[in-house]
Amino acid sequence: MTMTTAEADKILSANFAPWVLDLGLAVEALGEDRAVLRLPWSERLSREGGGLSGQALMAAADTATVIAVSAARGGFVPMTTVQQSTSFQRAVTGSDVLIEAVLTKLGRRMAFADITMSDQRSGAVAARASTVYALLG
After folding, report:
1. For the whole prediction, is pTM greater than 0.85?
2. Angle, nearest 10°, between helix axes 54-73 and 5-15?
3. Quick one: pLDDT at residue 48?
4. Cα(first)–Cα(last) distance of the chain, in Å?
5. Could you tell me the strand order of the sheet in which 26-31 lies?
6. What's the confidence (pLDDT) of residue 1?
7. What is the 3-state secondary structure (H, E, C) of the chain?
8. What is the C-alpha separation between 13 and 4, in angstroms, rounded?
9. Residue 82 pLDDT
10. Cβ-based neighbours of 79, under 8 Å, separated by 6 or more
11. What is the pLDDT of residue 119?
12. Rg of the chain's alpha carbons, rounded to an integer?
């Protein structure tokens, strides 16, 4: 059974710190091995020069991985980030960001994902990340 975006949004609202919820992330799409979230543009998240802050993008990538793992497992299980590496390629200004987390391996105790963060307006890749998670439950 495939998880719905409404179910994934409930996982988001029930399991993340208030400051992560303040990012305004919304689940756009789910698959058996992936999740796509939208990070809405906000002046509050921009740095000098008007570009979206890297910290917001990294938090969004981390969050998208949790949702992708939850979708693949059919529900939320406790997990923790073991590693995250992010490469920034271009600034995002005045546009939402689409964050696609694709699981490259999902085991009983570990999960690995590649994340692409794209400027929604232009489609250009803004950043890429890879994450490793320990599954605790």
Report:
1. yes
2. 120
3. 85
4. 20
5. 26-31, 34-39, 97-106, 110-119, 125-135, 79-88
6. 53
7. CCCCHHHHHHHHHHHCCHHHHCCCCEEEEEECCEEEEEECCCHHHECCCCCECHHHHHHHHHHHHHHHHHHHHCCCCCEEEEEEEEEECCCCCCCCEEEEEEEEEECCCEEEEEEEEEECCCCCEEEEEEEEEEECC
8. 14
9. 97
10. 66, 69, 111, 133, 134, 135, 136, 137
11. 97
12. 14
Q: Is 107 exposed, middle or buried (0-12, 13-18, 19+ CB in 10 A)?
A: exposed
pLDDT at residue number 57: 97
- The residue whose two tokens read 């994902």 is 113
Instruction: Report the share of the chain in percent with pLDDT over 70.
Output: 99
Mean pLDDT of the region 108-131 = 97
- Interatomic CA distance for residues 30 and 4, integer angstroms: 7
Contact 77, 103 (CB under 8 A): no
User: Quick one: pLDDT at residue 49?
Assistant: 85
Average of per-residue pLDDT across 13-41: 96
Distance CA 41, CA 90 (A): 15
Amino acid at 107: G
Cβ proximity of 38 and 96 under 8 Å = yes
